[in-house]
Amino acid sequence: MTTDIDTLATALYVRTDDLLKAFPQFAPDRPRVGIAPRLCDAELVTLAVMQALRGFTSERRWLRHARAHLRHLFPYLPEQAGYNKRLRKAAALVTFLIRALAQETSLWDDDVWVVDSTPVECGRSRDTVKRSDLAGWAQYGYCASHSRYFWGLRLHLVCTLAGLPVAFALVGAKAGDQETLLDILAVEPSLLTDRPGQTLIGDKNYFGADFETRLAGTGAVLLRPARQGEPERGGSHLFKPLRQTIESINQTLKGQLDLERHGGHSCNGVLIRVLQRILAMTAAIWHNDNIGAPIHRSLIAYDH
């Protein structure tokens, strides 16, 4: 196997097709009687991953490109409306594939995770905020890393040091990092019960006596920099280089996979576009791990 987009697409299509045969309950619902889709679910997911890796934020432009250059992989391609409609209905399938592919990598058993959140901006004008279907989910928030306010959501990620997504949540911009992390771990308690002593590394926002007590009750060990007025905490020599690791993972999603240029205008639209990018990063890491690539999170071979 080699590091090129066609090879990754073929491997992802085959694995997705096999997983759908083994777990058909994750396939999008469709009527028992009717016309069978000409683009199967495995092809749909593969097409969506290739779109994210190639950096096409416009579905219309992506489908025009695919018709001109990818007919050898996709004999049939839907129109933009059909592609968008089917993709939004495939959110459960995409979520399932993110976990399934992650568990098949050698990185899944890493005993150190990094936790962080990053903004997902959804609008800039006051008119957008007042009229958007995202109102009530999207909120005003502040990004300390870039010293700016924004209106939108926050993507909370739990990743391995190589950037493999372990768990995630997409919540309003005002949601606290501590409560969101506890909720993520509460939804899947087996993540930590199967890994006694798992180390979590976060920034200064993951603080609070009650939070740390509740997190310790799950069996996890939290490492974070000391806040102003606190005594020095253990592992402080690791935080500066690991902070760069966390920022580089966010940059992969935002710089290479255009997370903030998602283009979603509805709750389902934003959700599937964020999931699409998480799956693209997971699929690239999965493929790089399977072929023994030296850098698991490198997307350079797949963006052209």
Compact overview of the structure:
With 304 residues, this protein is an alpha/beta fold. The chain has helices at residues 5-22, 41-54, 59-69, 80-88, 91-103, 126-131, 177-187, 190-193, 209-217, 236-256, 267-291; strands at 112-123, 139-143, 148-160, 165-172, 199-201, 221-223.
Describe what you observe in this structure.
- The structure is a single chain.
- This protein is of the alpha/beta class and 304 residues long.
- It has a domain at 110-260: Ribonuclease H-like superfamily/Ribonuclease H (Nucleotidyltransferase, domain 5, 2-Layer Sandwich).
- It contains eleven helices and six strands.
- Strands 1, 2, 3, 4, 5 and 6 form a six-stranded mixed sheet that branches.
- The longest helix is centred in the last third of the chain and has 25 residues, at 267-291.
- The mean pLDDT is 92.
Order of helices and strands: HHHHHEHEEEHHEHEHH
Q: Please estimate the helix content.
A: 40-55%
- Category by helix and strand content: alpha/beta
Q: Could you give the count of β-strands?
A: 6
Tally of contiguous helical segments: 11
What is Rg? 20 Å
What proportion strand?
5-15%
The CATH topology of the domain at 110-260 is given as Nucleotidyltransferase, domain 5
Q: What is the CATH-assigned architecture of the domain at 110-260?
A: 2-Layer Sandwich
> What distance separates the N and C termini?
18 Å
Biggest beta-sheet profile: 6 strands, mixed
Question: What is the CATH domain class of the domain at 110-260?
Answer: Alpha Beta
Say which CATH homologous superfamily of the domain at 110-260 is assigned: Ribonuclease H-like superfamily/Ribonuclease H
Mean pLDDT across every amino acid position? 92
Shape: globular
- Give the low-confidence spans: none
